[in-house]
Structures are given as C-alpha cells and as structure tokens.
Write a structure and sequence with these properties.
- With about 40 residues, this protein is mainly alpha-helical.
- The protein has one domain.
- Helices cover about 75% and strands about 0% of the residues.
- It has two helices and no strands.
- The model has no long low-confidence stretch (mean pLDDT about 70).
Length: about 40
C-alpha cells in the first residue's frame, strides 16, 4: 500500500507542477488526467 500512496502523491505533485507552469493550458491537464491508473 505504501507504493500506491507514493504513486498517488507523485501524481498529485506532478499535477500541481503542471498547474503552476501551464496556468492556461488545458491540454497539459488532460494529458496528466489520462495517465493510466492501476
């Protein structure tokens, strides 16, 4: 379960970074959102 937690944390951090660098870019958000989860 630690792996799943760290994976979710990494995805959330990457999303925050994308939000900061691409305030007006929706495509980057959707590119992140479409990363397969398992």
């Amino acid at each position: 379960m630690d792996f799943a937690k760290s994976l979710a944390r990494n995805r959330r951090k990457r999303y925050e970074d994308e939000k900061e660098t691409n305030q007006n870019s929706r495509s980057s958000f959707y590119a992140w959102w479409n990363v397969p989860s398992f």
